Amino acid sequence: MTPRYVRTLEEVRRLQKLYAEPEFEQFRSITALYETDPEVIAAVLPPPLTPTERPLVSVSVSHIGASNGLQPFGAAGLAVECSYEGLVGTYPLTMPMSTDSAVIFGRELYGEPKKVAEIEVVKNGDQVRGTVERYGVTYIELFGTVTEEMEPGDSGESSRFYFKFMPAPDGNGFDNDPVLVRVRHTGQTRLVQRLEGEIVLREAAHDPVVDVPVQKTLGLNYAEGDTYTHGEILTLVPGESFLPFMFGKSDDLELLAKESGIVGAGTGSS
């Protein structure tokens, strides 16, 4: 018997096709758009990404009902609008997921800033609520009441930017320079509803979404549909320029060490 840790070339080709053409269908999602402090946008964007004219932030809480590579899972995210050489997209600061397989898939393939969290999307008549919880704190909450039916259809194409990298095993810098990844999103919606509601971001030590404050809410909506992703590498990024951002997708390691009773760094071994 061949150990399942090793795949045949035929199996590898099938799995590579899943990597090349991920499908996320039957989603139910509540999404909000808001303006924040322009200085915050400038501070969180690693070069070569640059701010756009408006300091826009999108936040979403979703449930994915079917996929060609994953079981159903909850997904969320907070992303700032940005640009790369004139191409406008978003840079996600955090992407909580409800399963470890969803975290692993996106982190390894695209470099997405994913963490495991408890995620719920509940629709009861005209009332919709989405929540994200980690370490006992519900730090993202979107809720609202349906006020208008909107026209569903083709979602068009949008871009998300990620930095894919691996820390060096000696703890200093990176294995290699990070790469800037663009992921194109396409799809369609079957239902879109405008909401009158609220965005709530709460303090969380390991998930500092409150550092991207809501200054002006621009809108909320609820949607159901399907989305498809396609990734590509845009460019190499000098490691030195990305160093201040490399721990942005991790929990606070020093705080975790304090919580475990270890005060100093580098005092143990793995």
Features of this protein?
270 residues; alpha+beta; Acetoacetate decarboxylase-like; 13-stranded mixed beta sheet; 13 strands; 15% helix
Mean pLDDT: 95
CATH superfamily: Acetoacetate decarboxylase-like
**Low-pLDDT windows of residues:** none
* CATH level-1 class: Mainly Beta
Q: DSSP helix count?
A: 5
Explain this structure to me?
There is one protein chain. By secondary structure, the chain is α+β, with helices and mostly antiparallel strands. It contains 5 helices and 13 strands. Strand 8 (127-134) and strand 9 (137-150) form a beta hairpin. The radius of gyration is 19 Å and the shape is globular. The model has no long low-confidence stretch (mean pLDDT 95).
